[in-house]
């Protein structure tokens, strides 16, 4: 089970052996609403099976559907869902993602995975991460304007100053004392001879440097998300001095998250800090598109954009979040064949286009309708 991590990009790169099964449904975080989730999941599997039966035998279908069916009875899974669920399955591949946004119920059986709902969330411009930091502990969060969840730090990222410095904190000349502070909780303060503040700052600096390197390597680079620092004001200066994380933004939260009453209060503060960055990015994308179009390097016509994506000419592809264009994209030629959305093997052209643009090294951004610079649901900025 996964929140978004690096293996989604692997799914985009993998050649799926048809049939490729994609299942989406909204889920609930709490009892009693979540009791209906496995029932709805079972019904969606039934729809998937009926679609498969149009082309495949029971012998071919059962091995692919087995991991879907096994998930139905996993009570621990259904008791720890978020707001949405995505499940991708094919021969030799099964991926389950917990989503921080609701998704519409959908089952697609096709020659490729239906990934637009995932790309929509993954490439949405309002996503961010938060690093909560004190002298003795690090916590990590991921969210958007509507929700924030704590994420378990990768195994190689120190969660505490003890994890980072280990035996250095137990040398004979060191002692450990705890002091209260406005940041909430008790902070472990490590002193050498005479308890000099410089010793404390040195230990904090080494801890912060280790956290910064670990977060960059195992979280920021993999997600590409902006990072907000949440810490007491005196810790911001130390951390920013040692940080080499290019995803760390200037806006910050000047409090230890442990001092807040709830994670939702942290979300509110995080969005307040992040919104200027978000709005600036949207404005910059619109300006980049307008400039590119005036120079002959911007386009809003789907047939031309499709051929440019296949040729590797698209640097940035903007897709309207709620727009769909049922049909097929020929990944070799860029040709588009529109189709009846009711057909069981028809995917979304914009879905395929976004996935292919990412595979070709392009940048894909999913924008709300009101922020799209075009009326066609798609816009491209060409490299040349």
Overview of this protein structure:
By secondary structure, the chain is α+β, with helices and mostly antiparallel strands. The chain has three domains: 7-114, eRF1 domain 1 (Translation, Eukaryotic Peptide Chain Release Factor Subunit 1, Chain A), CATH 3.30.960.10; 128-278, Nucleotidyltransferase, domain 5 (2-Layer Sandwich), CATH 3.30.420; 296-382, 60s Ribosomal Protein L30, Chain: A, CATH 3.30.1330. Helices cover 37% and strands 24% of the residues. The chain has helices at 7-13, 37-52, 58-72, 75-78, 116-122, 161-165, 197-223, 233-242, 263-294, 302-310, 349-359; strands at 20-26, 84-90, 93-99, 106-110, 128-133, 138-143, 148-151, 175-180, 186-191, 227-230, 248-253, 298-299, 314-320, 326-329, 336-338, 347-348, 363-367, 378-382. Helix 2 runs antiparallel to helix 3. The longest helix is centred in the last third of the chain and has 32 residues, at 263-294.
Describe the structure using short key phrases.
four-stranded antiparallel beta sheet; alpha+beta; 3 domains; five-stranded mixed beta sheet; Translation, Eukaryotic Peptide Chain Release Factor Subunit 1, Chain A; 11 helices; 60s Ribosomal Protein L30, Chain: A; 384 residues; Nucleotidyltransferase, domain 5; 24% strand; 18 strands
